[in-house]
Specification:
By secondary structure, this protein is mostly helical. The chain has one domain (3-200). Helices cover 66% and strands 0% of the residues. It has 8 helices and no strands. Helix 4 (91-116) packs across helix 6. The radius of gyration is 17 Å and the shape is globular.
Length: 206
């Protein structure tokens, strides 16, 4: 993977993760929970969102372990109190969906620049990385495994009778997620590539 590509990707995925977390806090605030605002997290200031492990150490670790083949980062999760929300079953799903949706909106906006603006090759590459990184963040976070956002959407759709299943999934979610990352993460590649082509009109690695 080209060094310039890696540098751009690293610089893009961190702000994208911060916007993702801001979107969670913004949605929770709109639905009645001011926790993020009161804790100073309803801001795009990166200092408020940087997580030592997820924002700095994890992407560096992945960079060296995969020789630049895979990079991922996340920002410090925005806190929220579900009991402050107006609808305790539905609204956590809306809060959870806000993060991936913000990334898809960013991907769509920059894909429109690619499609309809007369850009030089360097800008096309840069905007393509923005689109790809944000699609990656959205797709990964929509996996229905705690603590990812997809689990909040899943729990809102499950009936109350599935309470024991929810408890089990929450208890072992991190272990299941690690298993997925190490053994099944490759299944996300085709999904991300399909969405990238749908947004931009061409293949990312073409």
């Amino acid at each position: 993977m080209d060094f310039i590509f890696i540098l751009f990707y690293f610089l893009i995925i961190i702000p994208s993760a911060i916007i993702h977390e801001y979107a969670h806090g913004w949605m929770a605030d709109r639905l009645g929970d001011p926790t993020a605002r009161h804790m100073g997290r309803l801001t795009l200031n990166p200092i408020a969102h940087i997580d030592l492990f997820g924002t700095i150490l994890l992407p560096l670790f992945l960079f060296f372990m995969t020789a630049g083949g895979f990079l991922f980062a996340y920002a410090k999760p925005v806190p929220y109190n579900p009991f402050n929300l107006s609808n305790i079953k539905r609204d956590p799903a809306l809060v959870g969906a806000a993060g991936p949706l913000s990334n898809l909106i960013l991907a769509f906006i920059f894909s429109m620049f690619i499609r309809f603006m007369p850009l030089q090759e360097g800008f096309i590459m840069f905007f393509s990385i923005i689109v790809y990184a944000n699609i990656l963040l959205a797709v990964f976070n929509l996996i229905p495994i705690p603590p990812l956002d997809g689990s909040k959407i899943l729990f809102a759709l499950l009936p109350d009778s599935a309470w024991s299943f929810k408890q089990t999934l929450e208890q072992y979610g991190f272990i299941i997620l690690l298993f997925f990352i190490f053994f099944l993460a490759d299944v996300l590649g085709p999904i991300i590539n399909i969405l990238f082509k749908l947004f931009t009109g061409f293949n990312f690695f073409s």
